[in-house]
Write a structure and sequence with these properties.
The protein is mainly beta and 639 residues long. Helices cover 4% and strands 45% of the residues. The strands form 13 sheets. Strands 5-8-7-6-9-10 form a six-stranded antiparallel β-barrel. A six-stranded antiparallel beta barrel has the order 15-18-17-16-19-20. A four-stranded antiparallel β-sheet has the order 4-44-43-42, with no helix packed on it. The chain is flat.
């Protein structure tokens, strides 16, 4: 009897998840389940990175350790601080063996073979020089790195106050966030530093008009009659011109005396303007949800600033030192969305959008080129998109504002029935992705300049989108990965990677989706221009997303299951001899593999769960060094 031949088939993992299509119609290599994996834009699935708490201090995942043989003459315990008797350097103990120890937070380089002490008492000596990441095995190395990270993690605290972090932004590489004070009577702006969170000082403001002279930042003003003095930190020109009728506000500090609301303001004994208000402390109302953008209205490299709003107070400008509330003239001046477009600062107030004068974020008078419009529904996003267009997106529809100023600004409809939930619209390349009742929608430029096309890109995962939609608290993009992410309040979310597939003779753009689940509840997301994202939980902690290999010290449970592969013959009975999986590994990893046959039919024997270890990314034969653990480098075999 002739035995059937052995057949070899290669299947490429590509395409993300499909939970809608009939099983037999799904191409091999797609996933019917992918949790805490992300799709690559060129194929494959990659376990997501973790997240870790953040306040500007050294990152837990960047921590290192030192391992060394040692001879002990006294007791050494984990968390002890050892001091080199010769070098005087210090370190914290994280592991102790019978003849070795591991330390982290080394203050410098120890001396080989030196004695070390705890609390001034010599307790042992090194046998050689402590080696960085020197554990003999991959598993032990991974464990020591985890222990070192825990030490650094314990140093990182929340910004002081109460309630959740309410948003923020990053300016010139520094993260700033808002959180209510301990009594929830005011909002506080916090700065991440190498020493942890530092509260940003808020200055005073005083109104002025009749600006017949000139007041500049850095001037010391003196008020006639009252004799009060102050240092000018920011000049907020809201109308008129210096030398004639300038009017606005001054942000001031180092106040002596008490300003009144009527007398002249002098610089160098010369009258420059007249006060129109008392000097009042700038404050931030509690609550809200903050959105920010960075923009340069003035052309100087020193004037790249953050603009934002939180829906509970005036919008603001911030340069890292000076916080400037912006008066728009609205009776209820509490914008909830912000954007910058064509030299104008835009705010949204419910269903109304407004913009400042051209190149003047402080001036909101029509004479300066400011204007207002409405869309008849709540605005959920203001997004500058390709083609020099500002997308004004509502809950139900989307519109485009084109032009360069109030003279030629034109508002047109993109779609009357496709909008976005709040905080879910993001630009990725020349496209805009957003989440609506129709799913995750891609807004892309059409062939006609300034026009756009919309279409859902999430039909294959629509049930997952429907579940996430009422929970959305934010979104972000990773341009280096060609990736869009949207987050739910319960820590759940979706990852969409933009790619392309061949359709006939043409390549068409597609988006591959997987899902993730964090073990924390989220209040908001802070996406940043430098491809970093920060998570703000509902208890006031800030985390850097996609950083490290754990969920802030907790294991990441990640798994995926491909659709059943019938190898183009679904009714043919087959016997499988072996499966090999090609993979790339960064560091030490353990994977578990469990095959299923015939859709999990219990009439067929179940395969044992197989666990494999892997260390390193692999290399070419006779070129690199292959380390054989459970897997042979980048190829794992299942028999």
């Amino acid at each position: 009897m002739k035995m059937p031949g052995v057949r070899v088939e290669y299947t490429k993992i590509i395409g993300g998840m499909d939970v809608v299509s009939p099983a037999l119609s799904i191409p091999p290599g797609k996933a019917e389940l992918a949790m805490n994996y992300e799709p690559g834009d060129l194929g494959g699935l990659r376990r997501i990175d973790g997240y870790e708490r953040f306040n500007g201090m050294p990152s837990p995942s960047d921590a290192t350790y030192y391992w060394c043989k040692a001879a002990f003459v006294g007791a050494v315990a984990v968390t002890d601080t050892i001091t080199g008797v010769t070098s005087t350097e210090t370190a914290e103990v994280i592991e102790v063996g019978s003849d070795w120890l591991t330390v982290t937070k080394a203050s410098g380089t120890f001396t080989a073979d030196e004695d070390f002490s705890v609390g001034g008492i010599v307790v042992g000596s090194f046998d050689g020089l402590p080696a960085e990441k020197g554990h003999p095995s991959g598993a032990d190395n991974a464990e020591a790195l985890s222990l070192a990270a825990d030490v650094y993690r314990a140093d990182i605290a929340k910004p002081a106050g109460s309630g959740p972090v309410r948003g923020g932004g990053k300016l010139n590489g520094t993260l700033y966030v808002f959180r209510d004070n301990a009594l929830a009577t005011a909002g506080v702006l916090w700065k991440a530093t190498t020493a942890g969170w530092v509260e940003v000082e808020l200055f005073h403001e005083i109104g002025f008009n009749t600006g017949v002279g000139l007041i500049e930042e850095g001037d010391t003003i003196t008020q006639d009659v009252s004799g009060a003095t102050a240092l000018v930190k920011r000049v907020v020109l809201e109308s008129g011109a210096w030398g004639a009728d300038a009017a606005g506000r001054l942000v001031i500090t180092d106040i002596t005396g008490t300003f009144n609301a009527v007398n002249d303001l002098l610089v160098g004994a010369v009258v420059q303007a007249t006060a129109t208000s008392l000097a009042t402390q700038i404050t931030i109302e509690p609550g809200g949800r903050y959105s920010t953008v960075n923009y340069n209205f003035y052309g100087s490299t020193a004037t790249y600033r953050m603009y934002g709003c939180g829906g509970v107070d005036r919008g603001f400008e911030f340069d890292g030192t000076v916080y400037v509330p912006i008066d728009t003239g609205m009776e209820t001046d509490k914008p909830n969305l912000v954007s910058c477009f064509q030299g104008h600062l835009f705010f949204a107030f419910g269903g109304s959008w407004q913009h400042s004068g051209t190149g003047t974020p402080y001036s909101w008078a029509p004479a300066a080129g400011a204007n207002e419009g409405g869309v008849g529904e709540t605005i959920t996003a203001l997004v500058p998109v390709a083609g020099q267009v500002l997308a004004i997106i509502g809950e139900r529809g989307s519109r485009q504002l084109s032009g360069t100023s109030v003279i030629d600004f034109t508002l047109a409809t993109i779609s009357a029935d496709v909008g976005s939930v709040a905080y879910a619209a993001q630009n990725l390349g020349s496209d805009t992705l957003m989440l609506s009742d129709h799913g995750i929608t891609r807004l892309s430029a059409a062939e006609a300049y300034g026009n756009f096309e919309q279409g859902s890109v999430s039909r294959a995962i629509q049930p997952l989108v429907d579940t996430l939609k009422p929970k959305v608290v934010g979104s972000t993009v990773y341009r280096s990965r060609n990736q869009y992410r949207v987050y739910g309040s319960d820590g759940s979310g979706l990852i969409g990677t933009m790619s392309s597939e061949k359709n006939g003779l043409n390549w068409v753009p597609v988006v591959y989706f997987t899902q993730f689940q964090y073990p924390i509840s989220l209040n908001c997301i802070v996406p940043c221009d430098d491809d970093t994202t920060y998570l703000c939980d509902d208890e006031g902690m800030v985390y850097q997303a996609d950083k490290g290999s754990s969920f802030d010290g907790e294991d990441i449970e990640a798994y995926f299951r491909t659709t059943f592969n019938h190898m183009k013959s679904p009714t043919t009975v087959k016997s499988f001899l072996k499966a090999s999986f090609e993979m790339s590994v960064d560091g030490y990893s353990v994977i578990r593999v469990h095959p299923e046959f015939s859709y999990g039919d219990t009439r067929y024997a179940r395969h044992l769960l197989q666990e494999e270890e892997s260390l390193g990314p692999g290399d070419r034969w006779n070129v690199g060094s292959w380390i054989k653990t459970g897997c042979r480098s980048a190829v794992c075999r299942l028999h």
